[in-house]
Amino acid sequence: MKALRFHGQHDLRLEDIPVPQCGSGQVKLKPAWVGICGSDLHEYVGGPNICPTSPHPLTGESIPLVFGHEFSGVVEEVGEGVTRVKAGDRVVVQPIIYDDTCAACKESWINCCYSGGFIGLSGWGGGLSEHVVAPEKSIYKIPDNVSLEIGALIEPLSVGWHAVKISPYKPGDSVLILGGGPIGLAVIQALKAKSPKQIIVSEVSPRRKEYAKQFGADFILDPTKDDVVSECKRLCNGVGPDVAFDAAGVQSALTQAIHSLRAHGTLVNIAVWEKSAQITPNDLLFQEKRYMGIATYVQGDFQEVIDAISQGKMHPQEMITKKIKLDDVVEEGFETLLKDKDKQVKILVDMGSN
């Protein structure tokens, strides 16, 4: 079968590899749509970072590895003991690989598994292939009113959903979001389903400002032109936002967010930082502000996002800014995101299983 495999920096190859076999407790599916994630792009430009160069503790695999962890598909075959899905079902894959035995997994924090990884980054195949096999526990059916295209957005939307869910946010709060890229937009949509008082977005790119406004941001600030701290306080009755979400990973924005927060406010980091950041502890100390990190999602988040979309509480269709074929994925996908990043939100790869 054809599959896109990562060999190293700027080295993605469309290759013929064996078709995976469906074993007990497993589901074999034909991918339909696959999103190109920022993590994929980071690996392509500067990796391998997440992708293992020696055998992964759970998959036993190392590069070259099949890419694609944001994907939907159609079930082709189920293994012995599988009861939740059947051939022909339309599904999405929750790609976290976890051992289910470590201290984190025993607390249901599968996203913090000490040996964890991801389908499409750590082994077990990936969405950018003609067939993939995954454990039944990773498979979620999508209802008839949710398309397979939208199904490929469930994974990034679940990151935003989880961030809001475990933060101290409560309905009626004022929120600041740093960055209007795919994850920032996912946070906006998660918030809009949970009744915020107002959403403020700090973003430089003109196109991403438009997307943020379109998806429900009430106020857009440009940190190169606006005084983000004073504007946030002005918009929030002189006290600042209750919660801020960092989907940018930029030092200047981090500092602005901490200074913008009200007393007892919380800054939630979603961004994967490419280099070290600096925080002055006294900026947190004297007003008892908090800083917390979130990592992807846990069991249940995928289903909650699927339900929210099906019930009309989230409308992510406009996140899809380009659709391409597998044969064109390097030039029209990865290279486009490098050269034209500000004009793109989510590029989907059509795997032809629609």
From TrEMBL:
- Cofactor(s) listed: Zn(2+)
A Pfam family reported for this protein in Swiss-Prot or TrEMBL: ADH_N
Q: What is the lineage of its organism?
A: Eukaryota, Fungi, Dikarya, Ascomycota, Pezizomycotina
Give GO cellular component annotations, separated by semicolons: cytoplasm
Give the organism, scientific name.
Viridothelium virens (Speckled blister lichen)
Give the protein name, as stated in the record: Sorbitol dehydrogenase
Gene Ontology biological process terms from the UniProt entry? butanediol biosynthetic process
The GO terms this record gives for MF are: (R,R)-butanediol dehydrogenase activity; zinc ion binding
Q: Does the keyword Cell inner membrane apply?
A: no
Q: Which domain of life is it from?
A: Eukaryota
Instruction: Give the PANTHER family listed for this entry.
Output: (R,R)-BUTANEDIOL DEHYDROGENASE-RELATED, SORBITOL DEHYDROGENASE
Q: Which residues form the Enoyl reductase (ER) domain?
A: 8-349
- Which family does the record claim for this protein? Belongs to the zinc-containing alcohol dehydrogenase family.
UniProt entry keywords in alphabetical sequence: Metal-binding, Oxidoreductase, Zinc
Q: Which InterPro entries match?
A: ADH-like_C, ADH-like_N, ADH_Zn_CS, ER, GroES-like_sf, NAD(P)-bd_dom_sf
Q: Which Gene3D superfamilies match?
A: Medium-chain alcohol dehydrogenases, catalytic domain (3.90.180.10), NAD(P)-binding Rossmann-like Domain (3.40.50.720)
Record's keyword annotation contains Chloroplast: no
